[in-house]
Automatic annotation (TrEMBL):
Keyword Transferase tagged: yes
UniProt KW keywords: Methyltransferase, Transferase
TM region positions: none
Residue ranges of every copy of the RlmL ferredoxin-like domain listed in the record: 2-57
Keyword hit for Nucleus: no
Any one GO molecular function term: RNA binding
Record's protein name: N6-adenine-specific DNA methylase
Domain Ribosomal RNA large subunit methyltransferase K/L-like methyltransferase, residue spans: 160-361
Gene3D superfamilies recorded: 3.30.2130.30, Vaccinia Virus protein VP39
Entry-linked PANTHER family: RIBOSOMAL RNA LARGE SUBUNIT METHYLTRANSFERASE K/L (PTHR47313), RIBOSOMAL RNA LARGE SUBUNIT METHYLTRANSFERASE K_L (PTHR47313:SF1)
Signal peptide residues on this chain, from the entry's feature table: none
Organism: Oceanotoga teriensis
THUMP domain mapped to chain residues: 66-151
Amino acid sequence: MKLVALFNAGLEKLVKNELKSNGINSMENSRGMIFFDGDLDLIYKLNLNSRLIEKILICVGEFKAETYDELFDNIYSLNWYDFIKKDDGVIINKISSKRSKLFSEKTIQSIVQKAIYKKLMDKYSLNYIQENSKINIRIYSFKDNFMILLDTTGIPLSKRGYRKLISQAPLKETLAASLLFFSHWKRKYPLYDPFCGSGTIPIEAASYAFNIPPGINRNFDFSLLKNFDVDLFNIIKKDLKGKINTSYEINIFGSDKEQHMIETSFKNSEYYEINDKINFYKCSMEEIRNKGFDFGYVISNPPYGERYRDSNYAIKIYEQMRFFHKEFKNWNYCFITSRDDFEKHFNLKATFKKGISNGKMNNIIYYFK
Ligand SMILES: C[S@@+](CC[C@H](N)C(=O)[O-])C[C@H]1O[C@@H](n2cnc3c(N)ncnc32)[C@H](O)[C@@H]1O
């Protein structure tokens, strides 16, 4: 099967590495998407174990269509009954049409849904589709070339499930994980997050250190598909669970000036049963001290001044952070913020910078080595 991984644009290189570590060598990428071949076992494994990907999709078909009749016929010709059970339906929940003759999203949506339902009704000898469950479908068209994708994930993989409580400006879990890979952090090194909020970076770091599959406690839409192989899924899940090892010694610290954020972080970390492995404590950034390590990583998501307080507050914080240069001398730092003036206020030139698109907001990752 042709599969597609969706993720935040900017993470292409990291996602390629993650796919390579899952045995995938041949892949093509475009912005925020990587295409590769794989079977059900890969779909299950990536959904359970990817730290960076948002969704894994199956490419059901690709074709050229310049008229609505061609669109209907091509959609009808696809093997929908390989994926969709007799009493289930679909939702066309994302349409992107660029430089194509067919551009009305509403009409494309209606034609595609009609063609799929006609095919299912003909195949299953039905008069109507009951829609017990609805499978998510995405349609991308570029220069009249259509790609029809079926969502195996459902709720995006960034929603691991541990963040029952959040901070005012929570960082997406996949982006928190990306900081670990951009900075090449490894579990043998101390990690310090002085603005931990709801604990996302320390929890991502600890789950990575202990090989805890991020999606181990959640559900996926592939369980709704006709080709769902529950035995294969259970084997893969058991295999991944067998690799969890929480006996490694780690030194991960998360602090925040708000006591309720510390309680939130602790509560969230209970989800993977690692609440006794991470040191969360209340502390103002100005007062944090290195706990005696010669080397380590400060990895954090300091206030941006957009969702949390204002721009002046963010600038003041970045200037105060300059004391890290002494307190965490020779350490590596990795920060994510939406501001492009971070280096100026922190008074240090980044070794590496990367823009990451995150919905309407653009983030920048700064790595100082
Ligand atoms: C952008 S949020 C971090 C969000 C976090 N990464 C998460 O996923 O929940 C910034 C955090 O910095 C904390 N903060 C703001 N000023 C601080 C200071 N001077 N010292 C310590 N923490 C501070 C806020 O309480 C807030 O939780």
